[in-house]
Amino acid sequence: MKLLRNSIALFCALTGIISTQYSFAQKIDVTKRPDPLPAKSISFPAYKEFTLKNGLKVFLVEDHEQPTISLSMQIRAGEVSDKKAGTATLTAELLTNGAGKRSALQLAQKLDSIAIGISATSVGDLTTVTGAGLKKHFPLFISLFSDIVTKPTFSKEEFDKIIPQTLAAIKQEKSRPGSIAQAMSRKVIYGANHPNARRRSEASIKSITREDIIEFHSTHYKPNNSTLAVVGDITQKELTPMLEKAFADWKKSNVPLTEVPPASPMPVGMYFIARPGSVQSSIATSSLAVPLSNPDYESLSLDANMLGGSFGGRLFKTLRETYSYTYTPGAFLSRAKLMNRFVTVADVRNPVTDSAIWVIKQEISRMRDEKVQDEELTRIKRYVVGSYLLEFEKSNFVANILQNADYNGEPMEKIKSYPERYSAITPAQVQASAQKYLRNDQTSIIVVGSPDILPKLKAMGNVYEYNLDLEPVTATSEKVDISIQDLFQKHIQALGGKDKIASIKTLITKATSSLEAGPNQLQGTFTRKQKTPQSESTTLDLQVVKQQTWSNEKNVWTSRNGSPAQETPVTEAPKQKLQATILVSGKMLDLGYKAEIAAKKDGKYIVNVTTPIGDKETYYFDAQTFLVSEIDKTQTTPSGAIQIVTKFDGYSLVEGVMLPKKSTLENPDFNITHEYSYEVNTPIDDKEFAPPGK
Q: Over the stretch 632-646, which tens digit does the pLDDT of each residue have?
């Protein structure tokens, strides 16, 4: 054994010496990039296509490597079929919340017992229901899948749960500037009221009834309006009778045609959506593009890949590498049957928003004005085609191609020849597509960001202003007929007068409180004790959540859910102390706040306020009563800046001062409502403004 080990060691040593000498003899130039290997051709995977007795078209891709089967049902009804924006999405989300004879819980338990997940989504023209599981469970799997697609219960209980969840999701969407920019892009390119531009809103969701959901399902979910893709360890002989049995009660019938009118783009220009507190601007340039069937579609998609389809794209090289404006620029051409958008995107720092727009416009101009070099074009084409071919490792990718080709009316020969056809696109075709479709007079720019960047955008041309609900800012500014000093003087008088405000040494506020976070609702109480000059204690008790704060002239502390009180970070303490001031809005100018009237709109004076520590807030003063109706501020969180809106309602006179009866705090994560009662100048021991033992 020892001799054997020594022999192996000697062999390895000699092999190393020989291979080292050989490598030096080759004189490899390590500075030269190796040539790519020849492209490998692949054959489109085999599949079977057949139709059930009820008219449901089925695609089968057999894959016997693993004992699993996946299903994908594609229904030709999505957001474009909505009568009320959000109906298709709610219908899809409710499919798995009870079906057949099973409640939502019973259905979830049954699926869990066989380790199967089924989900449904609705986007654009289509709704898709997917699921996967082991072959040995397929009889039960297909039975449950059929119930979910054809026999959802849409129970009132589940409907009542999903509405607040959806409203909470919409608020979350408003905290994602990229999503807002894309929604606005669809509106600008397709038309304000076009089906392809529909976007669910709080108002549209609140208008949807359970009956609307039932009607949408009964109208559009039909076997002759759907296709089913089956992928996995099963043959057509095994599959057909199981499908016929599972879908025997699903009858075909006439389905109304969803009329999709031609695009009616809004005026070309700059569209700005103010999002206070944003430290970045989300930019999207958008142009109307050709349908999927247009011969120019593929060369135009290559334009998109040249600009920003990967790390090798031109926008990546300029916006990121040359100017360091952003990490993640990009470009894409949407892939829809009837009409599409050509879009470039970038999230950039506020100060360089206008500069980044100029860079993007220059790169688009280069696509029109300069013929791309063969080397660059070949590299991009190889990347796109190579990525496409790699996807064939996934059987579900093949099924998805089959279903989409069927919906889009694309012949399979066109699908199969895509790699060769894309690889053959010439520099002249790329430039011709850019010249035809990427024109300045057909490209709009959408920017979502801080109001501070608006002056720079206006210097570039006309700007259309919209709010976070994608509604035009139409309120005409009225003439500001008052100075900031006079406004605060009237506000002080409205509160009760300077002497009365100064006479309040303590204020105890008690409230019944209600917090809504998606489907969750918590009830509880809120107590706030304030004492001049800047001492405060608060307790918010929502049964499962309890938070307490204390502040005095020395320190600020916080405790959550009974945990030991922790001192607030030095950076946050000054803010807490300012908030502890009794009737702070009546003392702002004396405390060193800076304020200016930004506008007068909708019967309100809009005042931008900067606190003594530099925080920005916006106050809305009613032009009739001069009382505060709303305060907007921005708070930094680990996931980014969020806007917090506090609205006040129903002022009443309490011991000679006007105080609100109710307030509602709104942010993307939750809403909390307080209904108040007050005690004025009730003695408070200073010990209450520090945690026990402090």
A: 988 777 666 778 899
